[in-house]
Amino acid sequence: ERKLAPFPEDFFWGASTSAYQVEGASLEDGKGPSCQDVKEVPEGTSDLTVCADHYHHYKEDIKLMADMGFKSYRFSIAWTRILPEGTGEINQKGIEFYNNVINECLKYGIEPIVTMFHFDMPAALDARGSWGNPESVEWFVNYAMVLYESFGDRVKYWLTINEQNMLTLVGPVIGTLTIPEGTENVLKEIYQQNHHMLVAQSKAMVLCHEMLPNAKIGPAPNISLVYPATCKPEDVIAAQNFNAVRNWLYLDAAVYGRYNSIVWAWLKQNDACPTFAPGDEEALKNGHPDFIGFNYYNTGTVEADDGSVEESPFGGDQQNGGGVAGMYKSYRNPNLQQTEFGWEIDPVGFRATIREMDSRYDLPMLVTENGLGAYDKVGEDGKVHDPYRIEYLRRHIEQIQEAITDGAEMLGYNPWSAIDLISTHEGMRKRYGFIYVDREDFDLGTMERQIKDSGWWYKKVIESNGEDL
Ligand code: BG6
């Protein structure tokens, strides 16, 4: 029998949130609007003005995280709380809020892991062309500098951009990515914006290493290995195509400072290669992540395009119905179960994804998200029983241990989410938290918190450093 290696002693067991989904107080204390505050709210779901009201409950929330024994808490900073216009004036109240959150974490020995940008572009910068404006590189680097100056004495783990790949592939679904009206070549515009993000990320990594020599920084894309639907060679090519477009583009750029050749060739075919400003090539080469942060929910599966995939600039994902013409066609994996919200569940694919990253990049890895969205309900005893989530998490944690045994260096596990919050486009009813929040999409309830069964179970997991699953 295979003997499993233990989890490292200093493994970061924790969980994640993002500012615009958890904080609420969306325009309070000087915070400027982000794209999330001005977007059209998806029908039948709550807006983002209150969320879990973490802005006013952070002490209680972090105390509950400490009760579960968290070693880390991954949260994001709202750019517009710090710089309401995206550039210019600093909002001291915003600095104060994150100082409080960070200090509260440290009080309990919880390592703050900070995401600099999680789907919430300042609305004022969207109006100036968003990531499509070449100046966006400097906007982001300036914002990064303010963060390092303000919090770098206490924050040792930084994440640059959350799920840049999802932003690029399905941005409009999550209320981000502005395409200027009248844009002729939408694909080129998208990948130009993506290019600016890559350069901005690289410069932010360089600046972090200069300003904070003891800190570590990495990207946080959503990485999922893509399987071929069959062993037909054409399907393998399709899987390689989607792997390149979905995953490797982002990590090749972050780690090796260059574009993935399959992606570059595809963009070239579509006259959509991004324009490099002078110095961009060097800037990409200069950035080096200390680790790879990544979100994992499920693998993808594709087959060769039989000519039925329609041309669409947003063809990246199953959610978007289909694939990319001539490159790949989405395929439902018949071997996998699905969540109540139709997401495939693939714990073994987690291990496969980690192995693949390990052999491509040879860097330590930090799981920044993973988790199960479900319709949790309060039971007759007043508690929240979520055995399905325990099952989901257990099976994924087992696979991390398999991957560690395979030789991968894993820094931590921070599933989505520490506390119930608003999902990207399916509202409050799609819950992920270890902590239940008493509110519904259109009824703000009491906002009372309680730890779900999964949270008490997770406490045992943490206490035993992953032995007691
Ligand atoms: C990730 C995002 O894509 O998945 C989170 O980083 C998001 O912001 C999470 O909430 C779950 O997705 P969803 O669509 O169910 O909220």
UniProtKB/TrEMBL annotation:
Any GO BP annotation: carbohydrate catabolic process
Entry keyword annotation includes Hydrolase: yes
UniProtKB keywords: Glycosidase, Hydrolase
UniProt entry tagged with the keyword Cell inner membrane: no
One MF annotation (Gene Ontology) recorded for this entry: beta-glucosidase activity
A cellular component term, taken from the record's GO annotations: cytosol
Domain of life: Bacteria
InterPro entries the record matches: GH, GH_1_N_CS, Glyco_hydro_1, Glyco_hydro_1_AS
Pfam families reported for this sequence: Glyco_hydro_1 (PF00232)
Record: active site: 369
Family designation: Belongs to the glycosyl hydrolase 1 family.
Alphabetized PANTHER family for the sequence: 6-PHOSPHO-BETA-GLUCOSIDASE ASCB-RELATED, GLYCOSYL HYDROLASE
Full protein name: Beta-glucosidase
